[in-house]
Sequence to fold (406 residues):
Amino acid sequence: MQIPDIVVGRLPHYLRALQQMSQKGQVVTSSKELGERLGISAAQIRKDLSQFGEFGKQGTGYQIEFLIKQLRAILKVDRVWDVAVVGAGDVGHALARYQGFANRGFRVAMVFDSDLQKIGQPIGEFVVQDIANLNAMIQEANIKIAMLAVPGTVAQQVTDELVKAGVQSILNYAPVNIIVPPSVHVQHIDPSIHLQRMAYYLK
Amino acid sequence: MQIPDIVVGRLPHYLRALQQMSQKGQVVTSSKELGERLGISAAQIRKDLSQFGEFGKQGTGYQIEFLIKQLRAILKVDRVWDVAVVGAGDVGHALARYQGFANRGFRVAMVFDSDLQKIGQPIGEFVVQDIANLNAMIQEANIKIAMLAVPGTVAQQVTDELVKAGVQSILNYAPVNIIVPPSVHVQHIDPSIHLQRMAYYLK
Fold:
């Protein structure tokens, strides 16, 4: 059974909320509580989760630790994926030092740039690698995920390199659309896009 | 007529693609070309745009400059909105220096932090302001938009302050959900959420 991508897209939000409840020592939750926290209806949450199995009992709610374990397995983040950061500007810098990947299933493993001033310099615990070695290093380390933080002008060219190296997921911070084969997934982070969507509602 | 938020959410993507076409000197486009570029069906694009007016002619496509002008007006980004950045860590730093807001309708106007080591220090063209002055400075400058780049532990508290100061749109980089009144819009940027959504598809 193929799960709609929009459902897949909500699971990380459920997981994040559950992990936060768990960190506060909470043991059980309900679709109602989760829904209020996330601004999603309780019925939607029950329906989404029921696509993957029977995770709660009518009237007793969800065991948080159990549901976390299930969701991590479904999302394949019950392991740690190495991630390559491409581009060592401000955004790449922030990503390489970001503490928010721990316990979410990801670890930055290497950082690349093409700028001779940056190659060989430290960023957090990394040394910036020459983008000329991107293909070899990514294949060698069997990396499947990249975060793209290069200027828009070279984003497509670097994307093509990443795809050639076997990358299957790209989180694109460059403010341009990138074209990939159907087997590769792309998500975009462009703060202007989010701000514009909200500006529509400004009074 | 109320436009569904999911339609509003696609308009910034149309606008970004059109602006990129325009920058390359292109004058006319079609829903087919836009669709191929964005991975959205041509029919969907025509339907979305038709909710706001008659922007193209059957068979002759869309005049890019005209459609850009219309979309900027619809999204209320035919002006420049001042934005407050709260939190001067790596992410706040990257946002304060980000060049991607120019020509998209936004301008960072001030940066706040609570850390005495950071207050008074320069970030790009800004001096970090004391978060104790957040309410007064945001009201004084009539700022309606904030980007929240503080630790998760204080995100809700800072959000409450922003709402009290009159902020209507919050772009939340803190890795927690924040609760706001119905009149306030929130969008979240959490790279782990995006990476997890794509991890589901990894082979």
